[in-house]
Amino acid sequence: MPDHDSDSLLNRQTKRRRVDIGVKRTVGSTASTAAAATTTTDNIARAKAAIFSAMNSLSSHSQHGSDTDSMECSVVQPHGGPGVVSASDSESKSNVLRKLLKRANSYEDTMMPFPGTTIISQLLKNNMAKNGGGPERGDRGDRGDRGDAGFPGSGLSNASSDAPQEDACSNSSQDSTPQECLSPFGRPPGLAAFDIERLNDEHLRAKRARVENIIRGMSHSPSVVVPAASRHERDHDMDGEREMELDCPPPQSQQQAPSSPRGGEVCSSSSRENKRKQRLPQQQQQSFTQLVCQRKEQKQEERRQLKLQLEDMQKQLRQLQEKFFQIYDSTDDSEHNDLHNDLHNDIGNMSEDSPTRSDTGGDDRGGDDLRSDNEMSDLDPGHFLDRARALLQEQALLADGEKPRREGLGRSKGQGGPGSSMHAEGKQLAETLKQELNSAMTQVVDTVVKVFAKPPRPTPQQAFPPLSIPPERFPTVVNGDNPNFHTANQRLQCFGDVIIPNPLDSFASMPGMPDATNDQTEALPLVVRKTPSEHHHQSSAVGAHGGHHHPALHPSSLSASMGFSPPSFRHPFPLPLMGYPFQSPLGAPTGGYLGKDRSSPDSMDLSRETTSLRTKMASGHHLGHHHHRSLSPAHPGSTAEGLSLSLIKSECGDLQDMADISPYSGSNIQEGLSPNHLKKAKLMFFYTRYPSSNMLKMFFSDVKFNRCITSQLIKWFSNFREFYYIQMEKFARQAINDGITGTEELSVSRDCELFRALNMHYNKANDFEVPDRFLEVAEITLREFFNAIVAGKDVDPSWKKAIYKVICKLDSEVPEIFKSPNCLQELLHE
DNA sequence: GTGAGTCCTG
DNA sequence: CAGGACTCAC
């Protein structure tokens, strides 16, 4: 996995870790890497074939799309008369396949309003076919179980026709035995069949029947036990492989779901089987009975997986149907007639044709196929169940009295009144829906196909089901009971999210899960995947501002990034910020400050200070600034400052009294220093360079003093002095350089450069008249520096201390007005 | 040990 | 302007 330069180290590490895990997993569970790779390729190829088939379903509305399908499946499919069932296996095979394909096309036609559903049906068809039947064929599964006999009412006579048919189509290579190639369930995969239980039972029974057939065949030819076994095993493996290729992915997504205990079962079972498989190479002579037992276990696992997958698909299908019904619920009856007719026909298709549909017989779709399907389904109790369910669903969605009309409509699909205006509207709606679904579907399909087409650089044979498997691979497959089966699938699943998006996942989650696409394209290897619903929920929850966060602690993005620390944030309304606007000496709390200073140079100063404060805040201090922001959005500067100061308080751990003061309490005592306090301190510097702590307390009586506040104020003045002395030294040296020889030539006036620099620093707004005394002190200081430098005292590291001593004695008394909290306002208004 | 102050850095 | 390191006096 290529590391992106822009990725942070953490991300890179994470990615690497994930990849490593993935590799470990794969390697750990792979007995034969090469074989596993081949199997993976096979799986990919098959998945590709399935995708292409689905795409064809989308793009091809033609009833003859079966040609394409068969071509892609590498199966030469002669076109025979529909409904003709040959007694020979090969013919039966062909017919069944053709039927299936045709049926699929007819589904496509009827399902056009639901492109996604069409694909789902395709996939389901594949799976169901592999599993040997449709959901509603549980009873038939019984029949098949009893003896592979043909189904009464079904045109198919072989018990194992359908699934292997698909297998043959997708794998296109196995010398499948007739039994394997023939499925007892030559019926269309019904999506409307919501009876999962029956489907699974049928599936299991079909598997069992096949296994028994295999056993029988093996027992009849002991002389060829090993080769036959190999062959059978290979076939079975291929079959299982194919099944897993489609079956596994959805279970994986569900495996991750905490609420899916079956996922764990599958996982454990898979691991168990893998272990078993790894042992098998040393037990080449083990009885086939044992293999059969294992096969049964595997079938059960597959069944469970299939069940989960079907559940997902059915959920999505229901969502689609409900949406569709809701859309047309508001339309009139005529619309219902037409659209519901179509829809129900589709549903009937998915549920292997409903009685109603069988009655009509005038469907647009292939009549023969449908009829045969109907014939089969008519005798199926499960079909009535499905039908009843569909009706109930309709009733729930439609107004009373709709049902009879619907029934009548059901009889004549496509007979909906074309002249109805509502019908036209409905058509428009349908078109819109189609387009939307088509676009979504196209996106997903393109993505999947793209991904599939890229990585393995498949050869033509790999792109589609390989025609043959290298003989040398047989032993591996046989011995390991297809050990690569799980391995490859695991690998596919593990990297499915990144490298190989599972086609089933994409399709399954497509209709109702817009996130599915993102989910798949996201680089989330080995990361626990949520079920689509979970995903959706999660994303929605995130969108809804993370329901997991405590309401009181809703940190803003900034606070979150800064590492908001609730414990240190005891007061809901930090006073530094809160109090500041209310006592602002510069004007009204709400805007007076900004309104006045914004136009003045001082506002820039304050902005700068604010910026610095913000910088400080951003430098890793923890503040509940989101409260400030929300409470005084009009005072970003003061807010920041207050925060900064409150931060200081927090850091000092002197927050005991903070909770006592509320910004609305009217108290003049602030918990922190505001920008105005800083400004005031600067102005005070014109009078005193070395204020004592007591003095500061006196002049900042509106501030609740603590160690931190005092230190802060002292630090302020220290900084003032620093700048002051720096300027003095600077100008003293400059004077020396200018050739001044005597201190008498040195003077500090209001228009001199030194004063301007100082005034700019302490009185940027120039809205305060600097006392003359300060000029005197500045002049004295400058001369001191000049003399010291001239005397060469600056060689002494502490040569300034003597100057400090002198200057500290020059402090003058600060006017009483500075003791007023509103001194700034008063001073600046003078 | 603590506070005040300075120096240096950012 | 703040913070850290450091010194120094108490």
From TrEMBL:
Q: What is this protein called?
A: Prospero homeobox protein 1
Where is it mostly found?
A: nucleus
Record region (Disordered): 1-24, 127-186, 222-291, 335-381, 397-425, 530-559, 589-639
List the biased-composition ranges (Polar residues).
155-180
Per the UniProt record, the source organism is Xyrichtys novacula (Pearly razorfish)
Question: Low complexity bias located where?
Answer: 280-291
Compositionally biased region (Basic and acidic residues) = 136-148, 230-245, 335-345, 354-381, 400-410, 595-608
GO biological process, any: pancreas development
